[in-house]
Structure formats: C-alpha cells, structure tokens
C-alpha cells in the first residue's frame, strides 16, 4: 500500500515540477511538416507540396474531415522555412508574404474553427537551420509575444547556430516568456539534441520544469535504418531517459514516418508500437491527402493510441534482448495493465519466440491479453509457455490487463531482464511501482 | 547496317557458346523457397511453412490458378533442406520421407500437370549449406541421373564446403552430366559467388558455356539494405558483368523479396525495375497464399516483365550517378526501344530531377515514352528538358520506343555518362549496338 502512496506522491511532484502551463498531460498528437516537406519553398513548380498556408490548410481539412481529430491528432505544426527572410518594421517575425498571404493568425483561426491547434517553429541562433531569421536571446520576449498574438498553440525551439551558453540561457528564458504571454503554448525544446541527449550535459530535471517535450536525438529520415538508429539510442539509454518522462514532459524520438516511402507495413506497425511504448509524441509527417489505407489503419489503431496516451505517462523499457534478434519491451499502464511488445530484428522469416509471462517478470495470476494489431484476445496464466510468431522487422503488441498479481520489479533496475538482480522480498506485493 | 549484322553474329555465337540445352533464352521466372522459408523443417509446429511437398504444391496451385503462370512465372524451385540426411540403399539422394512422402517425381508430375516446372537443389561439398548430403565430385553423375529420372527441370548447384579446385572440376562436370541425361535441365551455378564474383578469378566466358545462370554475389535478405547492397555490387562491377549475360546465360542477383516483410511499396517497385534492367532471373520468394494486392500488382506488371524478358537479353547499365542521389539506368531493348530508369537513393522527399533524353545520350528525334508503373504516355523530343519526380528509395521507369535516331554510344564504355569519352563519328548511325 505504501508503494501506491509513494507513487501518487511522485505523480503530484511531477505535476508541480513540470512546465506550469497544464498542457500535454499525455503525449501531444498531430501533424508536423518537416520530415515529409522539408524546406520546399518552390510553390511555383510544386504548389501542392511547398511550405505554404495551403499545405497546412489542406492537412487541417484532412485531420478535421477524415476522423483523425477524434483520435487525438489535433496539432498542425509548421516547421522551418515559413518566415520571411526579413523581420518587419517593428522587428517582428513575419511569414513569407507569398506563401502565407493570409498570415499566421488567420491560419490559426482556420485551425481553431476546426477544433485543431497550430504549432510554429523558431531557432535559438541568429538563423534557423534553414537560414531564416532566428530568435536569439534578445528576441525571445518579442517573438513569444508575437506567437501569442497570432494565437499559436505550440512552439518548437530549434538550436542551430547557437552555442551551449546561449542555449542554457535561452531555453529557460523562452519558457518564461511563453508563460508570461498568458496564452497556453506547448513548448518543444531541441536543446538536449544539441548537447548529446544525456546527463550530465543534459539536465532532465530542469527540462521537465521548462519544456513540455524535447528532442533528445537526431532527425528522423524516411528509412527503416533511421527508425532503428533512433530506437537503438533511446533504449540503450533508457536508464537515463525514462525517468525524465511523465505527464506534461516527454522525450521526443521525432516524427512518425508511417505513410511515407521508406517503411514496409511491418515496419510501420513497429514504429507505431515502439512510439507507444516510449510514450512518444505522435506527430505524423506524411501526406494525409494521399495516404494509403494500410498506413491509415496503423496510425488510427485505437489500442496503440490508447497505450501511447495512457494517463500514467510512464515511458516503457526494453526488458529482453535475445541473441536471436527478438526483443521484448514493456510499459506499465493505468488500471494495473501493461503493454508488452515483441519485436524482431531478423531479416529472414517469421520467428517463433517461446516465453511465458512469468519469464517476463509478471507475478502469478491469470491475465487477459489483447493483440493490438489483430484484435485477438486470450487468457494466459503467468506460467503458461506461449509462442509468438514475430515477422522480420515486425512486432506483436499486447495489451495485458492484470486482474491478478502484477510485479514490476525489474523496472528501473537498468538493462534487460536476463541477469538482473532483484530483492525476493518484493515478490508478492501489489502493485509494484518504481520510484 | 554492318553493325546490325555484327550483332546477329554475336547472338548466334552466344547460342553456340552457351550451355547447349536450348533453355532460358530469356531470364527464368518462377518461385524459389529459400529466402522466405529457409530451412524450416518443423512441420509439426509450422505445417503451412515448413519445407515439404505441401508447400510446393500450395505454391504450384497459386501459380497455376492465380494467373502467375501466364505471366511467365513457371518454375517452382526447391532449395536446401529437402532431402533425407541419408542416401538410399543404392547411394541415391532421397527426399525426407516425412516431408515429401510422395517423392520428388510425383511432385514433378503435379507441377507438370499444371504447366509448371520443378527445380531442385544440391551442393558441390560433402554437405549442403544446411548440412544435408551434398553432391561431391564422385556423386555428380549419379545425382544428375536421379534428378533426370525424377523429371526435374532445373538444378541449382550450391558451393558450401567445397574448395576452388573441386569447384573448377565439379561445375563443368555437372553441366556435362546434366546434358548427358538427355533431359533439358536448367543449370544454376553458385560458383562465382564463392570466388568473389569477378575476373580473373571468375571466368564468365566459361560460365556462359556451362551454366544457364549463376549467382555472382551473396544471398539476399528481407531488407532494403540487402537490396541496395546487391544493386551497388552489380552496378559498380557492371563492366565485368554485363558482357557475361545473354540469351541462355544470366547473372543472378538473387530472389525477389517483394511481398515479404522488409520492403515498402516504393522499394518493391525499385527491386522489380532494377531486376528488369539487369535482365535478372525473376524468382519470387514469398507467400503466394497471402501476398498483398499491392505487391501482386508490382510482380504482375506486364511492362516490367516484358523489359526483363526482352529477346535481345542485353543486361542494362547505370549511366548516371548524381551527387543528389539520383541515378539513371538504361537497357537497350529489341525494336530499337530502350528502358530508362530513374532511381532515388534519397531518404527525405520526392526529388524533382531535370534532364533531357539528349543528356542521357539519345540521338536527335522524337520518342514515345511509356511510364511502366503509372501507364502514362508522352511524346518527347530528345532536346526537351523534362522533370521526373522520384520518390525516396523509389523509381520512375520508362519504356522508350525509338522510331527516330537512337544512339547507344555510351554502352560498354564503362562507368557513368558524365565525363565519358566517345567517338563523334558514331553520332548518327542507327541503330547503335555494342559488340
């Protein structure tokens, strides 16, 4: 019982420590332009795909009319290359007049009228990564106020052309400036990605106090190699990263590339599932006007989304790493439930992996298992050996409800399940929650 | 005119030099078990996927009943792990009695009754790669006769557990032994793959005389990285390889993995297109019982197949390699036509590539262009600048019919188009055919 009390104490502490804007109690969901549309400003030759108000209005239409909004995908986020190369007469940022003739405020209204939210982008340096005007220290208050005046709902603050000292000043300053506007603006900080993503260089306690989410690592590209590289980094460093995440503050492994060109259907399911395990922000970067039904069904998977959006906001971990290339991931969820993910790094054929819930550290009891991507259900005793067939580069994802005893003893003990040391006295207490 | 005459002389010479079984005047097409089913012999727990007569009969049913056969996919090829671990009383190979209770001859009849052909597998060493009885030098005649007795139509001779000397004796010996049976048996030699795939270690003139096709390089795996690795090797070594190919004798970059787990739709089209440019054997290794309609439509693309199967049998080349990651491939086809392939190695967004047919070395004239994967057609003057939008890891493939002048001057001059040296006197002769 005292463990549960301690847990709620932790949760409350988390609330007061996190950026005090009350936003993003679950990972934000929506659409972000960068991975798919980059800095395409050639509206003359590529009018449907260039960074312009039309692109964002198109995506807003799709989110609002095709049922994405109801699933939680509500942010429509502008990335780099939206602005004019010059600030206006009063020194304020202004959008490119040809590509955003209506201005950002009008675009925000277009979104708000459809129940959506608008995100915008800036950079700590003199220039953005794409060479547009940045928001260095002396422009932070002005630009925060401009975004608030435009009724923007989220701001991503990139770090190109800035140094560690400027970042150390600027990222907290922007947090205060955004709060000072009085408008709730979700705040995404690229700071850790520019500092290697790991303590002691990165102070995740501080980040949780000033940002709602942060990019820890490099940009995703449209390839399975890129997804794997990101997944490797996040789970190899899970001991340093998972404790940073919680309601209102999230590690961000970058956009979903499902529906683009580089992932197979298996790999698309894997990205969706791994991002759910990681409690990652779900920003699609794709073309919602032409996306295939296969990709849609993955992005719209309600159980995967609900695992991602679980109210506890606990980031999951890799608990098993087999020589066969099979890995098992686990995330504790509210109502004593959990998500289990079996992932294959193999590139040959489906692999029949044999294990049991007790081998995966579940305590004695009978569990209900729901297969996230097939909708199959089963009852499973902790001791029952079962086989999951995992496709190459694919996943099998389970939602495991746990009416019976549930043991989270390996959580936060570092590394994988095999070879762990734990205290036997922990065996039968319920529920086990890490501190 | 004399060029055309020389060309036909070459073609005739090709005929007499190639393995004298009259087979595979165009690259063989069909289905091969290995990549997708490996050495799965666990029929108890995995009855639908284990290496057994049921698997080959299932695939035969699909080829015959679902229209694959009519497209040219007629071979059903057994790979490793089909045999008993022991030869029979008379020293002959025998199939595993549990997994092939009907025997190979009955299976061959099952296929022949459906208008299909059966391929089987052996190895130059004492053991196959999977540890089953091999066909070393002293067993070659016996086993060739056994395969003929079983009415097998194709034989793949692997090289595990054999050395260079044994291979130098064994591969020609098997060729003679197969011919001596009097049964036309297509002969696939893994020999070059075991000798680095390049001259002087590999004698492609000799290979063309004794084998119908040969694996030059490592096994394909179910990943885009593997496809790229193979493509890189074949085109980096195109000067050594293209001249080896022709009717009856083919370089084999290994199976098509379209319909499996690792390739996106873009990447699937890329494999199909690149294999067509390479005049590669088209052996699918997938599950034809469950294959998606998207993968099917790529594998069934009639224009891609007809380019692959072009009667001239000239293996195509990479002619442009841009810093942007765009590459252009070209294959001359019969009727003065050609195939052009634009391929993107990028992993960001569709790339708009600007060029013209004259920049790609086509001579003055007006050409008809047919887009293989979209069925669009266009007329294009050689001098007209055009833009092709190539998706990341994707292709745009054109069949270019050439009523007008056509210049193949860069063919067999090595390397890429840019920076080439060619003889201006060649400019206006038609048609240009390499020697």
From TrEMBL, chains A, B:
Instruction: Supply the alphabetized keyword list.
Output: Disulfide bond, Glycoprotein, Glycosidase, Hydrolase, Lipid metabolism, Lysosome, Signal
Query: Can you name the source organism?
Result: Astatotilapia calliptera
| Pfam families found in the cross-reference section | Melibiase_2, Melibiase_2_C
PANTHER family, alphabetized: ALPHA-GALACTOSIDASE, ALPHA-GALACTOSIDASE/ALPHA-N-ACETYLGALACTOSAMINIDASE
Question: Any idea where the Alpha galactosidase A C-terminal domain is?
Answer: 313-394
A GO term from the CC aspect: membrane
State how it assembles.
Homodimer.
| Protein name in UniProt | Alpha-galactosidase
The UniProt similarity line reads:
Belongs to the glycosyl hydrolase 27 family.
Supply the InterPro entries for this chain. Answer: Aldolase_TIM (IPR013785), GH (IPR017853), Glyco_hydro_27 (IPR002241), Glyco_hydro_27/36_CS (IPR000111), Glyco_hydro_b (IPR013780), Melibiase/NAGA_C (IPR035373)
Which CDD domains does the record cross-reference, listed alphabetically? GH27
The protein's enzyme class: hydrolase
Indicate the principal place this protein occupies in or around the cell: other
Q: So what EC number does this one have? A: 3.2.1.-
- Enumerate the Gene Ontology biological process terms: glycolipid catabolic process; glycoside catabolic process; oligosaccharide metabolic process
Query: Its Gene Ontology molecular function terms?
Result: alpha-galactosidase activity
- Its encoding gene is what? NAGA
Indicate the secretion signal residues. 1-18
Q: Where in the cell is it found?
A: Lysosome
């Amino acid at each position: 019982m005292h463990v549960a009390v301690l847990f709620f104490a932790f949760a409350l502490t988390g609330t007061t420590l996190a950026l005090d804007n009350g936003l993003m109690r679950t990972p934000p969901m929506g659409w972000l332009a960068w991975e798919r549309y980059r800095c395409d400003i050639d509206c003359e030759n590529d009018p449907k795909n260039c960074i312009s108000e039309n692109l964002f209005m198109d995506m807003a239409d799709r989110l609002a009319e095709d049922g994405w909004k109801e699933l939680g995908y509500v942010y429509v986020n502008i990335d780099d290359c939206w602005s004019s190369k010059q600030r206006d007469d009063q020194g304020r940022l202004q959008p490119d007049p040809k590509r955003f003739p209506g201005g950002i405020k009008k675009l925000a209204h277009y979104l708000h009228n459809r129940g959506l939210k608008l995100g915008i982008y800036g950079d700590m340096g003199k220039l953005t990564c794409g060479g547009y005007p940045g928001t260095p220290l002396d422009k932070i208050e002005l630009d925060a106020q401009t975004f608030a005046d435009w009724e923007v709902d989220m701001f991503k603050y990139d770090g190109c052309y800035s140094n560690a000292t400027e970042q150390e000043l600027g990222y907290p300053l922007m947090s205060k400036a955004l709060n000072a506007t009085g408008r709730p603006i979700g705040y995404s900080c690229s700071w850790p990605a520019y500092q290697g993503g790991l303590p002691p260089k990165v102070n995740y306690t501080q980040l949780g106090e000033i940002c709602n989410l942060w990019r820890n690592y490099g940009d995703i590209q449209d390839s399975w190699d890129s997804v794997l590289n990101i997944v490797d980094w996040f789970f190899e460093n899970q001991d340093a990263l998972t404790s940073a995440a919680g309601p209102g503050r999230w590690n961000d492994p970058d956009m979903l590339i499902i529906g683009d060109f580089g992932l197979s259907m298996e790999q698309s399911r894997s990205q969706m599932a791994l991002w759910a395990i990681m409690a990652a922000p779900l920003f699609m970067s794709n073309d919602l006007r032409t996306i295939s039904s296969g990709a849609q069904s993955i992005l719209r998977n309600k159980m995967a989304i609900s695992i991602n959006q679980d109210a506890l906001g606990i980031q999951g971990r890799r608990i098993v790493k087999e020589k066969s290339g099979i890995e098992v991931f686990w995330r504790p969820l509210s109502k004593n439930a959990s998500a289990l993910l079996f992932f294959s790094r193999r590139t040959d054929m489906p692999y029949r992996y044999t294990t049991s819930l007790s081998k995966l550290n579940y305590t004695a009891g009978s569990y209900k298992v729901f297969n996230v991507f097939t909708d199959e259900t089963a009852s499973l005793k902790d001791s029952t050996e079962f086989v999951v067939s995992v496709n190459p580069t694919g996943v099998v994802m389970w939602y495991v409800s746990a009416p019976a005893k549930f043991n989270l003893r390996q959580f936060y003990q570092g590394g994988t399940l095999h070879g762990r040391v734990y205290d036997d006295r922990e065996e039968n207490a319920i529920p086990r929650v890490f501190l």
